[in-house]
Amino acid sequence: xxxxxxxxxxxxxxxxxxxxxxxxxxxxxxALYQLHRKGSLxxxxxxxxxxxxxxTHEAFRDEVHKALKEFVKEDIEDAVWQSFAKRxxxxxxxVDRLEDFERLRDFVLELEQKADHGGNRMFYLSMAPRFFxxxxxxxxxxxxxxxxxxxxxxxxxxFGHDYASAAELNDQLATAFAEExxxxxxxxxGKEMVQNIEVIRFANSMFEPLxxxxxxxxxxxxSSETVGVEDRASYYETSGALRDMIQNHxxxxxxxxxMEPPSRLRTEAIRDEKVKVLRSLxxxxxxxxxxxxxxxxxxxxxxxxxxxxxxxxxPNVAPNSQTDTFVAAKLFIDNxxxxxxxxxxRTGKRMPVKSTEIVxxxxxxxxxxxxxxxxxxxxxxxxxxxxxxxxxxMQLNVKRPGTDNVVVPIAMEFSQSAxxxxxxxxxxxxxxxxxxxxxxxxxxxxxLAWKFVDPIAEAFRTGAAPLHTYAAGEWGPxxxxxxxxxxxxxxxxxxxxxxxxxxxxxxxxxANAVEVKY
Length: 518
Ligand SMILES: NC(=O)C1=CN([C@@H]2O[C@H](COP(=O)(O)OP(=O)(O)OC[C@H]3O[C@@H](n4cnc5c(N)ncnc54)[C@H](OP(=O)(O)O)[C@@H]3O)[C@@H](O)[C@H]2O)C=CC1
Ligand SMILES: O=C1O[C@H](COP(=O)(O)O)[C@@H](O)[C@H](O)[C@H]1O
Known about the structure:
The chain is of the alpha/beta class and 518 residues long. 34% of the residues lie in helices and 21% in strands.
């Protein structure tokens, strides 16, 4: 175990609903284990898993051990595991039954009598969303939510299916928990480089004065995935890329890129600024959607030279399903800072590379004194790389060494080892445990995001926005390329795990590229 940190997370009982599920195995137990391994968990932190399956405490610990071996990058050291295992308990229960919550409550009370947990309780709902409202209600009715110290509710996505269902869920949660006790997860907010957007913007005087419509021509945000729908069709058929990615992760990145500087680095000050972006986000009517939003669905194609099926051939997908596996959109933020600057966003499954990047394109020089070999001058770009590489690079123009005065674009690059960054869930659990909800979504953010998305979903449902197709392994349908045709003319390439060099940044300069690196 790493040295004990001086700042340990406060004691509490951590109750994990859905403890036998996929998310718990792949992300949550690995994140808890990492916090334990780093010495961040105080002695008085106990973990109680619950789900319908029958396990003894010992058998459940064995399951967790297997999950850690599969999903933690490093080897699991036996001594660390043994001490982590002591924290773990299991109580069988069905969230449809109040009496099961009462048994769980009695178990938690027993634990609290045996050791000091500070009277605090954390509840993590890692279950199908249909259980969220009822679980919150039973937490209250069973007395589990009656604590001597603090109580917090971490809730997984999706938060509703549209504005109406999200508002209904929020009302249900509000009967048992106050807004400041609710931690709505958006795991993109736990990513190192998403959190870094604020720092890049507000800690560098060379960027902030340029961060507006006088200097920036457009912003592009891409989150592309190589995987298809995998075995998640029963969920994905109800969400599509619009609800799965745009309503939450993509809009969060738009907010982080476009927000005003907060007056102080305080949770509510930051969230207030984010929410103002959504208030200024231009909403499209159902009829307008087709002009600004492109939806696509992948057909059979090639990924890395291997044939893969189309979405309609995937298991449990409805015949003739109209589900969107790709969405691109042109957004406008109608405030002083961003008036007239298009924010292009796109996300899709079965695309050529797995990558999340934000490309900020600066305006052209007012007059071109210099030209590259193609007779123009490439724009300056600031690219924030979120996944899988963590870093950023700037594309600048410099003179190629020699006497011919040719100007070439270069990429000045910074990247850090993503392996060293804590995983998003580790960071978010840490924040929830210290009571910092900055990187969780507040209800007004969620509700405004749904109000923006609802007319788009309606246009998709009614066919007012056509469903385009794209072959697996392509960058979405042609219509997505047409969206950017006028400005800037292309989607800037994203690189996945490749290091962008000038050779890849601007391919027409490939033969003559110079590359500057720190
Ligand atoms: N998996 C992922 O990668 C991601 C998941 N999420 C979200 O996380 C949440 C969980 O997803 P995931 O882990 O994939 O889902 P799973 O279907 O894998 O797990 C669901 C969990 O809920 C338990 N459960 C089901 N019904 C009941 C019930 N009536 N009473 C008590 N427990 C019950 C199941 O255990 P048992 O059958 O033993 O009762 C299981 O532990 C969802 O909200 C999902 O949207 C978000 C992002 C990514
Ligand atoms: O929330 C989700 O995100 C993942 C993509 O997350 P990333 O961290 O790998 O970029 C996506 O695959 C999934 O469909 C969606 O539910």
